[in-house]
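User: Sorry, folds how?
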Amino acid sequence: MYAYRNHLQSIDDLVTTYEATRAGFVALALEKNRRATPYIAEARALQEAAGEAESPADLLKVKGIEMGLLTAAGLSDKSLAHLMSKDKIEAINGLIKNFLEPAGANFVEELVFRFLLTRGDTLGGSMRNVGGALAQRKLTRTILSTLTIAGNKYYWQHSKTKKWIAMTNNDSEIELSLRGISWESEIGSRTLIYNLTVPLVRSNVDLCLFNLAPAELVANKHSAIEPSVVAPYVMALGELKGGIDPAGADEHWKTAQAALNRIREAFSQVGHSPLTFFVGSAVAKRMAGEIWNQLENGTLTNAANLNEENQVASISRWLCSL
């Protein structure tokens, strides 16, 4: 029996429901509020400190608010790395002369508004990828749960330090900073890495499952020179699309399908055919039909709608059983 048949019986099972779309937008709103919390706290701190100034010009004398002034001037954290001290001073003076002084007695309020305007732009940029982040967290949590109830101990890789950390009894919220998972099955070592550039494909792949332990995976870095050497160790490669907006569903699928086609073509040239799979949040009817047809003819090995708990659990069990 094909693995996808454990949770999919027809095209309709893949289609995202109205209720799931609504819940997805609510989840995005909650995440946006969560990410905005530090910026609100920063704005309050800036307001409190700036209250010491009797005039806009006096802001230059207040210690510890230079970054706040630069942000209010419209400079992003990234842009500051390319500016000299004199440029930063010029930006702050421009803020004071053109916007704070005309605000009169309300200059502190104007300062905070402009600070939040720039921070809001930063937040908007980070939200462009939030769907993918939420999708990765959900799938990760389900995979970890699958391993735990099966009695399989795992290691997880921290996304920033790249260190592998042993499983503990309290693993709540590790999915917020997780890049990879490794475990030992009855068949052998398994390592799942998110967002990895696969040398053979020469592009980023959302999900990569290897039949190697983390140390062995690092040892095979010579694959960048001879990709065919590492090809047999690649078990499954997948695309994960977390965007919930129905308007972007087809575009997400086109991007994922193009990536999966590149994977198949690249590996076929070295005589290897890793399993391929797709997990998505926004799945429209026509898109579901294309996915179903690829499952039926064997082009795709597995697929799931991220909004359906049973489907996510099923595809997680499948990955952990490979």
About this structure: The longest helix spans residues 18-50.
